[in-house]
Amino acid sequence: MSGVLDPRTSPPFPIVAKTMLGDSQLRKNVRHATDVIQTKRARVVGEMPDWQALREAGRQIRSHTMENLDFYLEELERNCTRAGGVVHWARDAEEARQIVVALVKESGSDEVIKIKSMTTEEIHLNPALEAAGIHPYETDLAELIIQLGEDWPSHIVVPALHKNRQQIREIFQKKMNLPELGERPQDLADAARMFLREKFLRVKTGLSGANFLIAETGGVCIIESEGNGRMCLTLPETLITVAGIDKVLPRYQDLEVVLQLVPRSATGERMNPYNSIWTGVNAKDGPRNFHVVLMDNARTEILADEEARQTLNCVRCGACQNACPVYRQTGGHAYGSVYAGPIGAILTPQLQEMHHAQSLPYASSLCGACYEVCPVKINIPEVLIHLRNKVVEQKGVSAEALAMKMMGMVFMSERRFRAAQRMGRMAEVPLVRKDGQGVGWIGWLPGMLGGWTQVRDLQEMPKETFRDWWEKRGKDGK
Amino acid sequence: MRVSLFITCYNDTLFPETGKAVVRVLERLGHTVEFPSGQTCCGQMHWNTGYQAEALPLVARFVEQFRNAEAVVVPSSSCVAMMRDHYPKMAAELKDERLMAEVEALLPRVFEFSEFLTKRLGLEDVGAYYPHRVTYHASCHGLRNLELGDGPMRLLRAVRGIELVPLEGLEQCCGFGGTFAVKNADVSSAMLAEKTTAVLNTDAEACTACDNSCLMHIQGGLHRQRTGVKTVHLAEILAGDEVGR
């Protein structure tokens, strides 16, 4: 895998997907990991008698927040400042990068320890830090694997899901200089712990994302499984949190709902092992300087689109990815963005203001499995269709658009429809081959339709349509 | 009952046997079937591919054909899902209040075929005979949008002579997805390969479903692999009786 996961430069989904489909090891790893998570998720969701009511509560909290986002953001800023934090506003990725780089420099450090943050991946912060002479150390185990393996995340929650244990061991052996490294999970965890501990104790500046921002208290919440995140939040002298403006929750009590929904959906756990909430600074403990960078980066544009607004309700649990039959075949890199799977297919094109990633809204069979598992009930298929319409309107005239227009006209008249049926029967004649039983099959179709006959045959059209049969039947007096 | 049949453009053109089977079952149960001849397409292909302008006028066309129906029966779960999930919104988008009201009044009378039998008529045994080994694929739209549940299975279990075998990964999409099968042919093929493997593992003679679009996809794969396993719409199984055709 080469190149940054960047929608501006990534080839269209079908092209990258084809490469990924050829990687049988990757597909095996993705299949295995998503199967394991889905089985666990089904079990712990099944334990909840009020799961559907919880989902609805989650949806309502998130929708209400998005409808009043300006209000809650201002409340958040007020309360965060009151607690001793400093709030910075970034309109786009470039501004966010500049703010963070300046803050790190101000902290006097040329190294930062990082807790997994998809937002910083979204804005390609690590390359910007490195360009400024600052070395970022990822501390989430999966992100560490990605960083050492010079790879890219392929899942929102389990970024290294496409790697198996043996591949991870090889990366650690090479990059940590541990030729004798064992192959038990414990051995790998021990190696990572030793590697990271030294960074935790030495590096004075921390960089984090946020699962939630709490308007009522000005607090920031991170949920995780390893405790490495908590080290980044508590050990450094300076802590910089980068978050999209969509991460806000109105009240502290709203955590009651989301902290039940997210871990069950994300990793099949009843609760995350580490739930950290920090609010401002405290003279006796934790970082002395605390900054929150609130980033828009196209989110207000998504907010303005009534039909797509629900995209921002996402709590980044990744359940839609695990359930998606398309993601399960290709893994995350095919989506050309850090946000992969169904949520990526709707989020990425909107973050890019629809100029890039035009193939992503079509990277779905609209099977609805994503909607079924989403803990805040984002109707992803509905948003996909909405975005497809935007793509079509932007594209204007094309062979497909002309064909669709013609078909549309055909369907507006019974006479034209019948004529089209007759024409279809004539047009297919040269393509039909009879099989042993005398049934006609088409094994090759021209142009765009050729995608169909790649692995599928098509039975020839019947000689008589249903409506022809129905009319004849009437005449026979039956 | 007077039942109006919406055959769908797909079934009319490619799968007339399904329509004939629906007529046979309904008439055998003592209902009168009518076929409004001006009907064409529900607009699903256009709508789902992003061609909203082409799909919108088809809502009014559908209402015009079926506004007086006692019940509309459709042998396709995805077309019914299209209507239920999108027609109200489409009518609203057209800013046509009369159409909105008519859509709202008509939709509760529109049923997918198996749904009509189990939910509207309260039937499980429709007097069918089909002496074959069969496996059932739950189409995504029937499963998730229409929430058909085990309705189709209950109908199948009541069929005399049938040997039903469960399909592994029943709830997994077959990979059709309309224009998805062409626009993302490689991924669609990979999804299909899993489905056909599951079908072949059942040793069934036929795979059935409530939607011919999924079945055409599965059939296309099974035929390319020269397996001899057939696909058959649920209505065609229920239409089979001991008297024969």
State the helix count of chain B. 13
Q: Quickly give the structural class of chain B.
A: alpha/beta
Strand order of the largest sheet of chain B: 2-1-3-4
Kindly report the average pLDDT value of chain A: 94
Q: Please outline the major beta sheet of chain A.
A: 6 strands, parallel
Which percent range fits the helix content of chain B?
Answer: 40-55%
Helical amount among residues of chain A, as a percent range? 40-55%
Q: How much of the sequence of chain B is in beta strands?
A: 5-15%
Structural class of chain A: alpha/beta
Radius of gyration of chain A: 26 Å
- Greatest interface by residues involved: A-B, 64 and 66 residues
* H-E order of chain B: EHHEHHEHHEHEHHEHHEHEH
Gap from first CA to last CA of chain A: 66 Å
Low-confidence region ranges of chain A: none
Strand order of the largest sheet of chain A: 1-10-7-4-2-3
Oligomer state equals: heterodimer
Shape category of chain A: elongated
What spatial form of chain B do the alpha-carbon principal axes imply? globular
User: What is the count of helical runs of chain A?
Assistant: 22
Q: How many β-strands of chain B, per DSSP?
A: 8
